[in-house]
């Protein structure tokens, strides 16, 4: 089973990805893990990626695509299948993935898209507050501090402020929609309602994946 998981920041994609890997035994291929592995193993693409990272520069698409290809060519993929998480991030990377899969004689069986209303994600992502004294993290709605406390005892990181969160979501939507459209044209996209309890979302995810077999 060869899968791709998509979802906006805060949609619970990472949680569902971990559950899919545990339930179905596929190889979890996340961008960060791939880069670390390639650099640790000093593959050609790993060395090239490190040369950009060491200079504080963005790793070009052709290097990222090359690292993905190296990983997908490994034996465990043929045996177990894969779950791609965090790649492709752009439509150009999606086209490159199409070519890579064709060259490796692999087929993408389905795209699981954890679909959550962006407005609810703003609330979910911008509610995080941090205690100035203890460093403990809370959420205004889902995990508020208990007992008597002063709001001045807490602060919010710039990344967690509503306006910053909304900008980040807008960027992700603009990047992700062409990718979803691309795979929708291939009949591969399966939307799962992410506005539910984690375990209920996963039950829906399992139904989708089981239906692909």
Automatic annotation (TrEMBL):
**Which InterPro entries did the record assign?**
Adenyl_kin_sub, Adenylat/UMP-CMP_kin, Adenylat_kinase_CS, ADK_active_lid_dom_sf, P-loop_NTPase
Subunit and interaction comment:
Monomer.
Cross-referenced PROSITE patterns = ADENYLATE_KINASE
Give the GO terms filed under biological process for this record: AMP salvage
Annotated region NMP: the residues are 30-59
Q: Which domain of life is it from?
A: Bacteria
User: CDD domains from the entry?
Assistant: ADK
In the record, what lineage is assigned to the organism producing the protein?
Bacteria, Bacillati, Bacillota, Bacilli, Lactobacillales
Q: In which pathway does it act?
A: Purine metabolism; AMP biosynthesis via salvage pathway; AMP from ADP: step 1/1
Q: Which residues cross the membrane?
A: none
Q: What is this protein called?
A: Adenylate kinase
Q: Which organism is it from?
A: Streptococcus urinalis 2285-97
């Amino acid at each position: 089973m060869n899968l791709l998981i998509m979802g906006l920041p805060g949609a619970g994609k990472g949680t569902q990805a971990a559950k899919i890997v545990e339930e179905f035994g596929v190889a979890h291929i996340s961008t960060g893990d791939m880069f670390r592995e390639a650099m640790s193993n000093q593959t050609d693409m790993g060395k090239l990626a490190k040369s950009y990272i060491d200079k504080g520069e963005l790793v070009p698409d052709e290097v990222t695509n090359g690292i993905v290809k190296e990983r997908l060519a490994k034996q465990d993929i043929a045996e177990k299948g894969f779950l791609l998480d965090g790649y492709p991030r752009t439509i150009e990377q999606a086209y490159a993935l199409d070519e890579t899969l064709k060259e490796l004689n692999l087929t993408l069986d389905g795209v699981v898209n954890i679909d959550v209303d962006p407005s609810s994600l703003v609330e979910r992502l911008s509610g995080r507050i941090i205690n100035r004294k203890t460093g403990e993290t809370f959420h205004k709605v889902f995990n508020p501090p208990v007992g008597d406390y002063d709001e001045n005892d807490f602060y919010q990181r710039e990344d967690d402020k509503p306006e910053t969160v909304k900008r980040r979501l807008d960027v992700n939507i603009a990047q992700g929609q062409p990718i979803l459209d691309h795979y929708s044209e291939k009949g591969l996209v399966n939307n799962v309602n992410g506005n539910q309890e984690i375990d209920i979302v996963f039950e829906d995810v399992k139904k989708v994946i089981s239906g692909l077999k």
